[in-house]
Amino acid sequence: MSRVQRTGRKTRFIGAGLVLVIATAVVIATVGGGAGKATTAKQSADTKTLVVAVASDIQNLDPTLSSADVVTQELLTNVYDWLIDYKVVNQGGAMIGAPNSFVGAIAKSFSWNPAHTVITFHLRPGVKFANGDPLDADAVKFTYDRIFKQAGVTAFLTSMAAVKNQDAVKVVDPLTVTIDVTKPNTLLLGNMAQFGHSILDPKVVSAHETTADPYAHDWPVHPSELAARLPVGAREESELLRAEAQGGHGDLQGHPERFEQARPAQERRRRHRV
Prior knowledge:
The protein has helices spanning 3-7, 20-31, 37-45, 70-79, 137-150, 153-160, 188-192, 202-206, 223-228, 232-245, 256-272; strands at residues 84-91, 94-104, 107-112, 118-123, 169-173, 176-180. It is of the alpha+beta class. The chain has 2 domains: 20-77 and 219-272, no CATH class; 100-194, Dipeptide-binding Protein, Domain 1 (Dipeptide-binding Protein, domain 1). The strands form 2 sheets. It has a 4-stranded antiparallel sheet with strand order 3-4-6-5, with helices on one face. It has a two-stranded antiparallel ribbon with strand order 1-2.
């Protein structure tokens, strides 16, 4: 069964984890698509960059601390992956995620002990992050340590599912992880099948940790801040993309001279839309 068939999500990348580099590339492509002839020429020859217009900025690229507004959820869902997912079923001709049925994602299988106080995850062998780093049990452990240390919404929801703290997540071997719960419950799997539990690349995150930002939450730069640093032409392109996503020309309607500056980029997209 294919990845899309199993999860019902669009364009999911198995083992994507913390590929903030990819997310950064999407952000830069979105807000900087019309920054000059050199950029245009580069884009024409680039077959690996996808430019997507959305109706608003995302909150941030840190899945642990992002809430589920539509734009943020769509982007994070397409960039990251997690251990398990909702099983997709046919209900009255509609494909939906069954709220009480789960399948493996990064984990190829999972099982409870008889007392339902320990769940064991067996990871898929050979899965790598986008940069080639292994997506293994150490990456899972790093992710859950970070979740609990950040003490955000994901940590709160996970603790509600009787996972006391990061010490409850244990590495058994490179492809096996266990999670202890203080009492049997039906909350844990539903919580884990969401982007807050995205598995991150320890090397990538650690490389951007600082004293002021110990969990690299603010890396990369938020798209709104990035847009403010771009040349005027690139900012116009960003504004036009957002306006088109909303079904109109937004603020450009009251500024025809700005629309004219952005028009070449608009025409390029019309010729190349798929």
